[in-house]
Fold each of these.
Amino acid sequence: MQRKLNHVLIKRISNDNYEDGEWKADPGYLSTYFVDGPLLCTIWQDSADSEILGENWEIVSIKNGVMKATALRVRADGSTYTATFELTKVN
């Protein structure tokens, strides 16, 4: 059985791209985000020659235009921690 993925168009925006009171889209070469069940999946590439990277985040809530997600991460020493991620809807 095939599952249909819910693709979401999201422009990558970072704190480095805030100019003149407006957010600017990240100039990354590739940036794809999609939702698959409870997961927010991210894939990006900074340039045509760079490595394609990706992460999966578990969506915790979507409320008042803010999606909150968490993911288990591993530190260099092998210990783990929970990272948090928030996306805010902008027009």
Note: The longest strand covers residues 53-63.
Amino acid sequence: MAEVVNWKSTALRLRASLANKRQEAKHAARTANNAVLTVAGGALAGAVAAKMPYLPGTTVPAPAALGAGLVVAAMSGMLDDQSDFAASVGAGMLAAMAARETEKLLRA
């Protein structure tokens, strides 16, 4: 009888351990995905800046406007399941623009 109880407790511990490992793997994948999307946002900012540095008729940097737009759209819930992705890409675009502007100011 004691062997059955011991087997059940071992199985329950194993199940809990597997559930924890699954959660850890999901968290790691989500973190890596957000990092990749943020870097992609930075690359996209560079591509947009090369093709259209400013919004037409303004002095507003196009990548900054697009990045801010993506973040705002994500925050508003307009993008449903894609909100996290859009926020990461937008954040990457804004980070790239912030880095560029900071570099300009420090070199001046």
Note: The two ends are 80 Å apart (CA to CA).
Amino acid sequence: MVKFTDLIHHKRKDLRLGALVGIYTIIKYNEVAIPILLNTINEIFKALVNFELQEDVFIVCALEILIFIGPTETTLNQINILVSLLNEDSLQTLYPKIFSSIY
């Protein structure tokens, strides 16, 4: 899990996306310690700060992970990043996922 989390910030987009797929697979089929989950959430939000540099599929996968984990205090503390996503007109199709990651 830690290796996948580190790859979220890799310069190659295929490795970044693969990292998110790996994270999703691990949390879906395994029990993950809370500190590791919280660290993963923080790293996802760090990647979403510069969402305009990410491909839409990366943003979708990141949101899917946040939705799967469910709302946490960490997610709520990063709500300003989600609001930035909502302010981006080109991401209108992702609005339901953005809202789902909060609630």
Note: The two ends are 25 Å apart (CA to CA).
Amino acid sequence: MAGRRVEKKVTAGSLGAAAAGAVLAILQTVVYKGHAVPAAEVTIVDLVVPAAAAWLAGYLAPHTPRAAAVPPGPAAPSTPQAGR
């Protein structure tokens, strides 16, 4: 597995979730500072927004091309089954 790159969709999803977490942290410390936001709403937003950002980033990222498939070798000769 040495030398294998991480797929583009996985990288995009991870970066999307990290970016969403950073944006939420900034919003909570700068924008909502001093305002009473219910803890239940904060929890739901903290769960849903990064998950949605990761899904969207992974969905929009291009697929990673696969390496060329190795052609199969010659088929093994069939042997007659006993009793048939």
Note: Residues 8-60 form one domain.
